[in-house]
Amino acid sequence: MFLDAFDEGSEAASRRDCAAKWINIGDAHCLFGNLNVERGTFDEAVQACLCALTAFEVAKRLSDEDDSQRREVWAKLEASVERFASLDQKVERVDIALCDEDKLSAYYVPAGASSSRVPAILCISREEETAAILLARLLPLMISRSMAVLVVSYDDVSNHWLGPSEMLLSCCLDYLSARPEIDATRIAIFGEGLSAALATACAVADRRIAAAICDGGLWSWTRLRASIEWMTRTADLPDEGLSSAQRSRLARRLRCPVLVVAGERSLFGVSEAIKLEAECTATSIDLELLLPPTPEGGLENFVACDEGVFKWLERKFEHATASQ
Length: 324
Hints:
8 strands, Methane Monooxygenase Hydroxylase, Chain G, domain 1, alpha/beta, AB_hydrolase_fold, Alpha/beta hydrolase, single chain, eight-stranded mixed β-sheet, Rossmann fold
């Protein structure tokens, strides 16, 4: 894949040059899309815009966080989302009503044409990204699926001036459940980074969540373990039985299928995720682990990883429909 040749140790100049090439590829797709708009061939324009989004996402991953190149790519990603919305008219900016007069801004993408009600997924962006940046990454995968998507930003749902994150996410579930095209029995939640912990907390608190792509409580366990090490001034932890119980504490409270994605996009170690999966399997908890196909020392194949997430979700929803 296009990121396989690069790793964290690659020379900055080489990565920057490669990022610039992917920016040019994205720009070329944008120009091609504009030409198709002028010709009135809107389907081709939409496909060009989706290709541009993927190219800019690759460039984002190759650019350094503090580099002006990263800011340039972010601006192009957000502009491409707005361009796609104007072309396809499927991306809506919506306001989620909260318990008081405040509102939460979000992106809503309805599913493709369907004669029946469709499942939905509530997605929370990473802590350092906007909702538009996450939507830009997911749009090429989502657009052909019979699934609606609501995307909110981590900054908004973790804003305690608006209320506890579980309450804000519950309002998002209210919004989805009230839409006539949504099957309220098939709503999932998706988070990565710190958002994965928010997704876990929401799935524990709100039984309307039918599937969760989250951390399964591993961030809570990681913080607890760090506190124990700090207080005892030692790296020695309690016996394995107690450690196992603490590690799977939140997972045992989840009442829906769970997918934990470990690796580059997680805040916990792969070994901890493997232990959690084994513990949940032993106690018949429906928790699976996804390890993205990342070459040794390379960057994550985000397309394959996101595809794996959506295929898992579709499988769980199909099983839920068959059981009804």
